[in-house]
Amino acid sequence: MRIVFIGPPGAGKGTQAERLVARYQLAHLSTGEMLRVACEAKTAVGIKADKYMNGGQLVPDELIIEVIRERLGQPDCKIGYLLDGFPRTIAQGEALDSMLDEWHSPLSVVLELHVPEEELLKRLAARGREDDRPEVIRLRLESYRSQTEPLLEYYDAKGLLRRLDGSGTVDDVFSQARAVLDSLVTSGSNRSHR
Ligand code: B4P
Q: How many CB atoms neighbour CB 129 within 10 A?
C-alpha cells in the first residue's frame, strides 16, 4: 500500500503512522523527522531547513521534493510506504504525482486526520518541541490552512481521500484507520497498486 497522511500540526500523524507501519509492514517516511535529523546533523539540507522550521514555515518545495524523491527510490519503499507529512502543498502533490506516474505506482489512499483547533493547541502545548512555542504554532496552523488544506480537495477529486476523526483516543483513531486500510486490502485495490 502507498498511503499519504494529511493533518494539521499536532493532529497525531506521527503517532498513528508508527502503529500503522508496524501493522501493515510499510516504510515510514516522516518528512518532519527527516528534516529534524538533518538539522541536528547540520547537513546542507538541515542548514537550509532550520530557519523555516523554527519560524513556523514550510521549507521550500524544491528542497523537500528532492529529499522525498531520493527516499522513495530506496529499496524498502518497494514493499509500500506511509508518507507522514508529505505532500504539504499543491506543488508537492503534483511533484509526487509525476514521480508516481513515472514509476507506475499510484497512491492507494490519502488519510486526512481531522482535529478541532482547540484540541491541537492543547496537544502541542503538552508536547513542547522547539517549534511548539505559541507564536510558532499559530504560524504553523495558518500555513496548514492556506497551503496544505487545498490538497484535501485535490485528492478528493481523485477519489482517494478518506477522513478520520482524529479527536478521539490514540486507540480510537487507530481503529478508524485500520477499518479504512483493511477494506482496501479486502477489496483488492491494494494488490493492483503494488
Ligand atoms: P511534523 O513533524 O510533520 O510535525 P507535526 O505536524 O507537528 O506532527 P504530527 O501531526 O505528526 O503530530 P504528533 O503525532 O507528533 O512537521 C514539523 C515541521 O517540519 C513542519 O512545521 C515544517 O516546517 C517541516 N516540514 C515537514 N514536512 C514538510 C513538507 N512536506 N514541506 C515543507 N515543510 C515540511 O502528535 C502531536 C502530539 O499530540 C504528541 O504529543 C502526541 O503524543 C499527541 N497525540 C497524538 N495523538 C493523540 C490523541 N489521539 N489524543 C491525545 N493526544 C495525542
A: 13
Calculate mean pLDDT across residues 93-111: 97
Q: Which domain holds residue 15?
A: 2-29+79-185
CB-ligand 1 contact for 140 (6 Å cutoff): yes
37, pLDDT greater than 90 = yes
133 lines ligand 1 (CB under 6 A): no
70 domain residue, yes or no: no
- Is residue 184 scored above 80 in pLDDT? yes
pLDDT for residue 192: 44
Residue 22 in any domain: the answer is yes
Q: Which helix (H) or strand (E) holds 111?
A: strand 109-114
pLDDT of residue 188: 74
Cβ-count burial of 11 within 10 angstroms (0-12 exposed, 13-18 middle, 19+ buried)?
Answer: buried
> Residue 111 pairs with which residues in a beta bridge?
5, 162
Test site for ligand 1: of 4, 51, 58, most ligand atoms within 8 A of the Cβ:
58
- The count of domains in the chain is 1
Q: Are 1 and 108 in contact (CB under 8 A)?
A: yes
The answer to whether position 65 is within a domain reads no
In a domain, 170, yes or no: yes
Averaged pLDDT, 117-143: 92
